[in-house]
Amino acid sequence: NAGVTQTPKFQVLKTGQSMTLQCAQDMNHNSMYWYRQDPGMGLRLIYYSASEGTTDKGEVPNGYNVSRLNKREFSLRLESAAPSQTSVYFCASRLAGGPGETQYFGPGTRLLVL
Amino acid sequence: SQKIEQNSEALNIQEGKTATLTCNYTNYSPAYLQWYRQDPGRGPVFLLLIRENEKEKRKERLKVTFDTTLKQSLFHITASQPADSATYLCALGGNFNKFYFGSGTKLNVKP
């Protein structure tokens, strides 16, 4: 049981380049999330998917798009990277989105945009 | 918008003592609050949850309190060990699918 996996682990981009961050979970969870973590700012929700086929914006969605490819996979795309998107990105999942359910996090993707 | 405050300064304590971390919040009425542990270079790991109608929750050496009047949660680690050194995050939940995280407090337990 791998839990939540993310690829790549590290990435360096130039301003204007695009890339897709991949996330997969093998726990049969319905809900999946993308967060970014910046120093001193905590985790901020970018997008989430309550269930397969649905996605919704979080606190900081600008500059990002997401795809819930199937129940297991939830990808985050940066169409035109900007230095302000330098951050650590975490994917998370939880069972059904009910109150109090814990989230399970992946190991993170460290992104540097030059 | 909601604001969550955790002490940004690291907390340094001696092994065996009780560590107490604080999470204060404003402009929000969470239905529950969670605490996570995060080690360097890794994702957060869930520790404890407390609901708005609960005053206190315990799990082994961990204890969480929740005061909805003060809008504050306290997280205690008793008999702390160097292995407890990490950053601890609080997260507020209400809407089923959204959480709001604090920036975390780094705990250093010295032998």
Topology (elements, then pairings):
The complex is a heterodimer of chains A (114) and B (111).
Chain A lengths: L3 E4 L2 E4 L5 E7 L5 E8 L3 E8 L6 E2 L6 E5 L5 E5 L8 E8 L9 E2 L3 E5 L1
Parallel strand pairs in A: 2-11
Antiparallel strand pairs in A: 1-3, 3-8, 4-5, 4-9, 5-6, 7-8, 9-10, 9-11
Chain B lengths: L2 E4 L4 E4 L4 E8 L5 E7 L6 E7 L4 E4 L2 E6 L4 E6 L8 E8 L5 E3 L3 E6 L1
Shape of chain B: globular
Number of helices of chain B: 0
Overall shape of chain A: globular
Give helix % range of chain A: under 10%
pLDDT averaged residue by residue of chain A: 93
What's the number of extended β-strand segments of chain B?
Answer: 11
Number of strands of chain A: 11
Cα-atom Rg of chain A, whole angstroms?
13 Å
Biggest interface pair, residues each?
A-B, 26 and 25 residues
Mean pLDDT of chain B: 92
Report low-confidence residues of chain B grouped into runs of 5 or more: none
The span between the termini of chain B is: 41 Å
Q: Main sheet of chain A, how many strands, which sense, barrel?
A: 7 strands, mixed
Number of discrete helical segments of chain A: 0
Radius of gyration of chain B over alpha carbons? 13 Å
Major pleated sheet of chain B: 6 strands, mixed
Task: Write down the secondary-structure element order of chain A.
Answer: EEEEEEEEEEE
| Oligomeric nature of the chains | heterodimer
Secondary-structure-derived class of chain A:
mainly beta
